[in-house]
Amino acid sequence: MKHSFRKGLMTGAIAGTAYILLTTKKTGLQRQHHLRQYFDDLTTSTQHLTQSVQRFKKALGHLQHEVKTTAAPTIAALQQDIEDYQFQMQPRVEQLTDDATKLQDKLNTLQPDDSQN
């Protein structure tokens, strides 16, 4: 089975190549020039891609450096500011909670309890 597939593949490749060579309107020199131009363009595109990848890697390195040097200290400073704010607000929150409890107790003494009726 493998041999018949290979045989068919090779026969198809040879027949396709022969058909193209016999029916094409390009001469051998034109075809060579076209292939040379194609591979030159492919080489140039590959070089541009390689340069772009190198620039991307360099930019990524700069970004990582910036994150390490600016983002980490900024996050630490923000966390410190939040802790300071919470520390400063704690007495006020406790006072507000105490006041709310006292108000609720006074409201409960002013209103008659519906369950006693």
UniProtKB/TrEMBL annotation:
Protein name per its UniProtKB record: YtxH domain-containing protein
Species annotation: Lapidilactobacillus gannanensis
